[in-house]
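haha ok so turns out i had the wrong file open the whole time. this is the CORRECT one, sorry everyone. sequence first:
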Amino acid sequence: MLTYTIRRLMFAIPTLIFISLIIFLLLELAPGDPMAEVPLTVPPEVKQKMREALGLGQPLHIRYFKWLIQFFVSEPLHILSNMTGFNLAGDAARLISWQSRSPIADIIAERIPQTLWVVGMSYVVGVLMALPLGIISAYKQYSWFDQLGTFIAMVGYSVPTFFTGVFLIVIFSVELEWFPSIYDTTLRVVDWDTFVLQFKQMVMPVFVLALYNAAQISRFMRASMLDNLNQDYVRTARAKGLKEQTVVLIHVLRNSMIPVVTVIALGVPTIFGGAIITEQVFKVNGLGQMLITAIYANDLPMVQTLTFIFAILIVLFNLIADILYGILDPRIRYE
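then structure:
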């Protein structure tokens, strides 16, 4: 397993470099100019100096390698310097947002708590809802519970999150006035009253995303359970006199989790990417909302950095899913 993990990590390096090149070229070749919002009264020579200050006057390959060095060397050193108190980075240039003129890592650090609170919590709630829903639906196939679970999954997966979010706002914020429609990112939990406010403003965005996540994962869980319930080893376990609870929750569930692990693991990077549409609906000041703002403002360093971070997370959690295969199924061995 250790050899396989090291080999996969070594293979991931050229993969990520290739992905970074593709991201960089796509964004560089995309239409748009960071100077587009500069007033027309600004002279052309001043605009040219502003472009050079942003690094746009350098050749394409120079800017690409400079961005790689800043991403993999300068920013990690600055982060370690802030954590340890030692000046490890020196005067190394940082990745700067064109829009805010601030270091991108600092902006991400400010936004990620809101994203993890809302999107991360919704993913945990969605998984906790989906697993028992899929297990019971498969075990009681075609029962009223299975029919209800199928209906809920169909609604949760087919109805777009912006519609669900607006629908909940109209019902619970406008009509009933139970929950706030706008997420207050400045709220700090310091006592019971602020905790209640935080809970209330998280209910609707968390429910919208949890319903969407649970709908997808529960269908995978149900299909995988149905496939394993009819296997020979299940009939053998029952013939040996094992309790039905042991057969289902130990033997069947463990094998059924193998394909579901991939869905859950590959869904984790979406937590850090934020829920772009839902964050826009509820005005959650997270990473998804920041990505949309950066795209509108042609903030290429911010968009490049965020998309590359998402690519790294996908590669990493794909590896984690493969490792979990060997833990869940002892028959799987990596040579």
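The two ends are 7 Å apart (CA to CA).
again sry for the mixup
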